[in-house]
Amino acid sequence: MPLATQPSTVPVVVDNDKCIAEKGCRVCVDVCPLDVLRISEMTNKAYMAYDECWYCMPCAADCPTQAVTVNIPYLLK
Amino acid sequence: MTMDAILDDMSEVKCDVLVIGGGTAGPMAALKAKQKNPDAKVILLEKANVKRSGAISMGMDGLNNAVIPGYATPEQYVKEITIANDGIVDQKPVLKYAENCYDIIQELDSFGIRFLKNENGDFDVKKVHHIGTYVLPMPNGETVKRALYRQLRRARLLISNRYMATRLLTAKDGRVAGAIGVNTRNGEFLVIRAKAVILCMGAAGRLGLPTSGYLYGTYENAANSGDGYAMAYHAGAKLANLECFQINPLIKDYNGPACAYVAGPFGAYTANNKGERFIECDYWSGQMMLEFFNELQSGKGPVFLKMNHLHEKTVAEIAKTLHNVERPTRGDFHENRKTDYAKDMVEMHISEIGFCSGHSASGVFVDDFARTTVPGLYAAGDMASVPHNYMLGAFTNGAVAGEHAAEYCNEVDWADFDAADVAVEKERVMAPTKREDGIPPNQIEYKTRRLVNDYLQPPKVTKKFELGQARFAEVREDLEQGMMVRNAHELMRSLEAASILDCADMAAHASLYRTESRWGLYHLRTDYPEKDNENWFCHTLLGKVDGKMASEKKAIEDYVVPIAEDEKDLYDKQRVAAGE
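Above: the input entities. Below: the structure tokens describing the complete assembly.
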């Protein structure tokens, strides 16, 4: 049984101009209770890899450069 | 090595006290164990990161159950909780909490967590409950986790983040011997031998499916997937009153509380579509939830949080707390919907079901020392059976557990476990990684939780529960024979899916066993609509007997605080009388 890939618009958005992950920052990835953020191998910036968000905000609150925005997931917006 | 790739590796460590769960009760348990016995090796294991894990990830807006001299006595509190929980309460652990919690408040204050004080410098406690006064706002409640973390660092506690505990290890004599954990980012196994284990793993919050259909839009922190309940069950511990579900009044579609504790003391209240108050008391109890449910279904539904009669400065004050602490995206939610508290009533709904003793009474059975029925195994916080315990209960009983466990360690040696148990567990955990194709964990989880809503959500009907059990059995076969994961992150989700399914089975089993109605909506059985004190004025304990789920009755311990005959049903009189 092959798996399908379904698109989903994700709640956590990272401003690549502000994100300093390429300098080694991992704050948002470290603090996320659901562990859904990763560093992209292509851009070296943080991004939401898994759409499993409690929109709880530590990623945004703890980001040293205010690069992270948490939106309400579309399904409950 | 990239993150999420699965390693095939195992290591073993040894400690005196292992605390599992770094949210609220866990850090306090670890801290107190270390203070009590500085030579003890204490490990705090956490599925996420202790800095921001658990129900209070972003803080808390207040204490819901503070027993503060001058406002309330421990005996009054015990009485209130006994009545609120329909009499099904072992009072000793509740009394112990009530007696200890003021010390814990002062200790939290010394950590830098501030509580609201009046102009005289006294704690400014508010009345929300039916009878007594216990609600204490926290003006800098967003700092709780940071303050706790500072204490953990100062005590040099050993913290292992991103390890998910999967099963407890027990000795031949039934005593706890440690736990097995799996790294959530590489699948590496960790066997931790411990003399005592304290479970502080939170509610089973991912049991029902929120009406939005978004798996993680739960009332509880979505990381709290009931792993503690499942682990306790498989280790042979008894679980109490699981049929007393957690169901909360929430903002429709948003997972934030309504919120009686914040807005109530300012004059806000729960109203029907006429803007009329219909419940006497907004304190969360099963009886209150039943009136809420009845109003939702009625011609006067749905239900709203009403603040638009308040002065705009008051509204702004409420909004400041509601939008900054505990659920900070709440303001964005209302802004998207163009809801203005000063003009509009806010639509409310009832939450998905869950297990959570923090709010109701469904938890791993513990005594007044936080001991479960398994020697050496403790539980505290939302997952332990002390009813209506909330955040302060997690802190206070976490402290009780930590101190007792530290002393217990001096009396015992490490228990031996069978190495075969580790091998069996490794095979169970890793099975989904060995399959080339199959069903991903998110689909197993979605189906389980959709079935929970279809069949287990109250009002409870026997035949529907039996159908639900049959569907769960089919999902279990899919989970055990056909679930597939592609990386370590999905492996964590697959383990959570198994915990959720275990909790669904326990919720069904416990509910069918108690053939009466009790706790308002929490256990409303339409084919047994009456409260039956003659046969069911008792706890129910669920456990694993000869490998199978079984329930039994347990007598309630003699009350230490007597309840007068005319006080017993105070919480049953929730509906505002006609004409008022």
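Note for the figure: The longest helix of chain B spans residues 488-513.
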